[in-house]
């Protein structure tokens, strides 16, 4: 779909900034214990994005958002480097938390918690997932075990969370807990002595500052004024956040795979073997042709789902289909890029190896492929029964 003039202008500025300013940072040694950029590096890049006028480019002056179709065009270009979304403040979990707060937060919440996120001066974390071996919530949020209870003009929260992206170093948290009325959400200032980071495991992906922490919450007191929305509405608010957030992941990683494909194409046109360029060997040329097809299909799926969301639908079915189709297509693209590059593809000589790892992880977070397929199969059954 043709972007609007507004999206075209913003997207071109973002792409130019990422290619000229951010890609050179890919060799910057400022990384944490599992390879993710340190906050020092993140905020240095954000200051450059601020100066270039491309910080939080999907949020308009005055607080409005680009449409989802426009956002797709812009976020894809921010993803041309794994560092691009961090620099431009379009990365998860902040991008999804910004969207949720803009839709559900009170005016006080927006001033205190949303404003510094939009300005790129802080990071946030979304505390929903729980330890799997303890029977906690993961792909099935109804298994939520973290609890909250009213105590005067406060709520008290107890529980454990796992794989909480960016918890280490975040200053804004959104916690989901189960009240008598049902799942509820709370805004909290971080760090807090009642929220203890137990561990930050090394994971195959390394693009998100703070890693994916396991967290213990003990007797956390939160003022009632910091409940996000109404008690018992947590699952509804989660869908407000998760449907567009799934799609945003697709947008960003599509940009990364665009770049990986560019690198593979350049290599195939320069490298010679068995008397001719790699591109002229069908085994390589056909892989790159298949990449073109998968990238285009992923783009079309993203645009279709974005259009549904722009039409006012919650888009849970559509975002599930997009998450499955795009993550699986991009996995094929990344894998082919590694294969085309050969030995270089499994080294850190280019970003292709990192893109492969990141996209492999993407097939799991925000719902594994199999969970989305299962959800879609249930809809097929419901629709069939309703038609009988």
Automatic annotation (TrEMBL):
SUPFAM superfamilies: Acyl-CoA dehydrogenase C-terminal domain-like, Acyl-CoA dehydrogenase NM domain-like. One of its GO terms (cellular component) is cytoplasm. Residues 232-379 form the Acyl-CoA dehydrogenase/oxidase C-terminal domain. Residues 125-203 form the Acyl-CoA oxidase/dehydrogenase middle domain. GO terms for biological process: fatty acid beta-oxidation using acyl-CoA dehydrogenase. Residues 6-120 form the Acyl-CoA dehydrogenase/oxidase N-terminal domain. Keywords: FAD, Flavoprotein, Oxidoreductase. Signal peptide: none annotated. GO terms for molecular function: acyl-CoA dehydrogenase activity; flavin adenine dinucleotide binding. Its cofactor is FAD. Homodimer. PANTHER family: ACYL-COA DEHYDROGENASE FAMILY MEMBER 11, MEDIUM-CHAIN SPECIFIC ACYL-COA DEHYDROGENASE, MITOCHONDRIAL-RELATED. Belongs to the acyl-CoA dehydrogenase family. This is Acyl-CoA dehydrogenase. It comes from Novosphingobium endophyticum.
